[in-house]
Amino acid sequence: MSSWAALFLFSLLTGITILYCAFQLYPAGTRFVSRNRALVQDDSSRDFIPNPVQQQRLNYLRHFCQAKRKKDGGTSLRTFIQQRFLEREQKGHIFVSRVLPVLYCAVPKVASTNWKRMLLLFDGIKSNISEMGVKSKVHTQRGLRPLYHVKGHAMPKVIKDSFKFMFVRHPFERLASAYRNKFADNNTYFEKTYGSRILKMFRKDLSKEEYNRGRGATFQEFVRWIVQVEPYDPHWYPATKLCHPCQIRYNFIGKMESLLRDAKEVVRRVDSVHKFPKTWTDGYKVSSNDLMFDLFSTLDEKDILGIYKYYKEDFDAFDYGLPRIQHSYNNKNNLLLRTLKKILNGKLT
């Protein structure tokens, strides 16, 4: 082989090696910006400019976190990760995209199923929403990447560099929705797992079979059980404890009341190809707003105060006060509103 041929072959192999290494260091989907003539990975969370509504929500949350730190000292993100809270408590609730610099905290009963579907679309695991039917087990589908799968030393950077978002809902409306879906609809798993415990706690005259089946727990019994036992289940667990917004600094706080508008903004920010489904329904004839007032009418002041205290940090962090009243509900002067007004005005503690 001539020296020129050898030199050509060496140059070709060197070029291929460089390209291969570059691909390994910067996989497809990584964006770059020029900074001092050097290529650096773009921190996508830094160039997000919130609109006025978002700025108001984020400011409100920041003030809540500042007050919380003054009161109990707070926990830094690094300490938070070292103590492995994310692995122990948040398994399966905080996700990161495999392709885009995106982090999402899933709060159940706040369109979380559709947002998990969107993550699968972002990552190319699925090509369209129609592939994932309404009853598909998106919660257990392969492809979603929980944050705790990220190695501890890399987690701070992943969190810092990601566009971080979550969606919330009025705590009482979310609680009512969870009760209907998991208990009133005769969900066998929840009845046997939790309904049985509730009945054993509040009813002393049932048969062994009735206790084991766990069917028929009332909303009042459900609320009193949560207040007294504080059981962990993501479907009714406070959003502040699921998502830890004082440790993870979210860039976007969406709300159920403005779901489609907020979802459109998130999708525009992270991925312009896929769209959040416009037609969203839970399939119930009675709205969750009306349901909330109907269910809370079965409680007394002590019950409402107790469950308010359970969700107090959600009320404070996400600027929730009196629940919105839909036109379909006529009885506006009910116990829930009267009691909440007393609580918020400091007349009931």
From TrEMBL:
Gene Ontology molecular function: sulfotransferase activity
Subcellular location: Golgi apparatus membrane
Entries under Pfam families matching the protein: Sulfotransfer_2
Signal peptide: none
Chief place of localization: Golgi
Membrane topology: Single-pass type II membrane protein
InterPro entries: Carb_sulfotrans_8-10, P-loop_NTPase, Sulfotransferase
Gene Ontology cellular-component annotations: Golgi membrane
Name the record gives this protein: Carbohydrate sulfotransferase
UniProt organism field: Clytia hemisphaerica
